[in-house]
Amino acid sequence: MSAVALNPLGASNGRKGVPRTRSWKLRRCPTNLLRRRERRREERTMRKSISGWVCAALIIGLGVVDGAQGQSQRTVTMSRQLENEQSLDVNVRYGAGRFSVGPAEAGLLYHMQMEYDEDVFEPLAEYRGSSLLIGTETVGRRFRFGDYKSGEMELALLTEVPMDLNMDFGAVRADIDLGGIPLTRLEI
Questions:
Q1: Mean pLDDT per segment of 10 residues, for the chain of length 188 residues?
Q2: C-alpha span between 167 and 94 (Å, rounded)
C-alpha cells in the first residue's frame, strides 16, 4: 500500500526549456517512509517525556533524602543593653517562618529569641555606632520537601530612643506590634 502525494508537473523532470505548468500529477510515496517519519516523531516525544519523569524523580528523591537526614533546629537568644544612644537605625532581615516584633523592657536596646535550621540559616546581629542589623542570613541553597519545620523569631525593640525601622521579609507570617516604639521612619 502506498500513500499519494501531489507534485507540480515539471518540478522534477530536469528538462531545460520546458515551461512549468500549474497542473498537478500524482506521485506515489512509499508508506514505509511515512511510517519512519511517524516513528521518529514518536521516539522524540517519548524521549522528552522520559527525561521529564527522570528529572522529576531526581528532584523528589533528593528532597526525600534531604528531609530524611533531619533538621538541625537551634535556638538562640540575644540581647543588648541600652547605653547612651540618641537615635537608632534598625534593619531587620528574616527569610522564612513566623516573626513577631514588639516593645522591649526598659533598658534594653533589643531582645531576640530565634529558632532556626542551622543547615539553611544563620542568626545575624550586628551593632555599629547607631546602626543595628538583626535577623537571619542564608548559608546554603537547599530546598526542603515534605515535613519541614519553619523557623521562628521574636524580636523586642527599645522604647526610649527614636528609630528608623526597615523590615525586609521573605516567606513570613508576621505579628507586628509597634505600639510604644518611637518611630521616625518605617519601611516594610
A1: 50 56 57 73 70 62 50 86 89 90 90 88 88 86 58 91 90 88 90
A2: 8
